[in-house]
Write a structure and sequence with these properties.
There is one protein chain. By secondary structure, the chain is mainly beta.
Length: 111
């Protein structure tokens, strides 16, 4: 079964950290560019970070310098380390591989 399963969301105070993980199964993980997206209440879904199959990375300006995306091809996982979190980072975070999406995990940052 092809699926992406996120974990690691939760609630944290501003300035804190969280680490999201996404476990992929049923696909040739190493061949996929992997992305983290988020959707905040009342806003459109936006790309947060991307790591290519060759491990090149891209970050949205709003998270650059605070978030780090990484992948482990041996474990079929992609992670998003989120530091110096801000209330505006509050959103549901989704893992993405091509047309595949995870179910999402909630991140809530309180001021």
């Amino acid at each position: 079964q092809v699926q992406l399963v996120e974990s690691g969301g939760g609630s944290v105070q501003a300035g804190g950290s969280l680490r999201l993980s996404c476990a992929a199964s049923g696909l040739t993980f190493r061949s996929y560019d992997m992305g983290w997206f988020r959707r905040a209440p009342g806003k459109a879904r936006e790309l947060v970070a991307l790591i290519s199959s060759g491990s090149s990375t891209y970050y949205a300006d709003s998270v650059k310098g605070r978030f780090t995306i990484s992948r482990d091809n041996a474990k079929n996982t992609v992670s998003l380390q989120m530091d110096s979190l801000k209330p505006e980072d509050t959103a549901v975070y989704y893992c993405n591989a091509g047309i595949l999406w995870g179910q999402g995990t909630q991140v809530t940052v309180s001021s």
